[in-house]
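Weekly modeling sync, notes
Attendees: S.R. (lead), two postdocs, one rotation student

Agenda item 3: backlog of single-chain predictions. S.R. asked that every request posted to the team notebook include the full sequence so nobody has to chase files. The rotation student volunteered to paste the first one in as an example of the format we agreed on. Action items at the bottom.

Example entry:
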Amino acid sequence: MQNTDNGSLRDLAHDASMPDGTGNTAAASYSDITRLIERLHRRYLDVIRYELSQMGIDDINAVQALLLMNVQNSEVSIRELVDRGYYIGSKVTYNVRHLVETDYLEQERSERDRRSVRIRSTKKGNDLCKSLAEMEARHADALGPEVDRVDAAWALLRGLERVWSDDIRFG
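Predicted structure, as returned to the notebook:
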């Protein structure tokens, strides 16, 4: 990813993660974290959009590429995409159909339940996922020493996901 007017990827990550600019993670409130997650999602879609542009890919959008990355080497139903949190939105069928039409995904009816459609990535889809995984590896490298803190961030975010899921399920 190229540097932006606001600095390097590392600078952007640091600035965005510390609401008060002090570097004190304890100062990051729950509210700040939830808003940061949303901003990071939008920023990541921008990163994917930029990468697609650099590769000359204009037949799918960033949301569709992210959906493809979540399917990758699996075979899943459209329902599983939503249930597993791989896709959040109201146009999953449209986006899957578009990925099938552009030959990034293939689909077939389930033999057990003819109403259910199973999807999987094609060679074209796998090639794109490989390129996007290389992009992610470059970004991880750009974090430098901060990469040691990725496991802690992952654990915190998984815990937050669990709390939210439990709240939805159990109230």
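Discussion: group reviewed the output briefly. Confidence is low (pLDDT under 50) at residues 1-14.
Action items: rotation student to repeat for the remaining queue; S.R. to check formatting next week.
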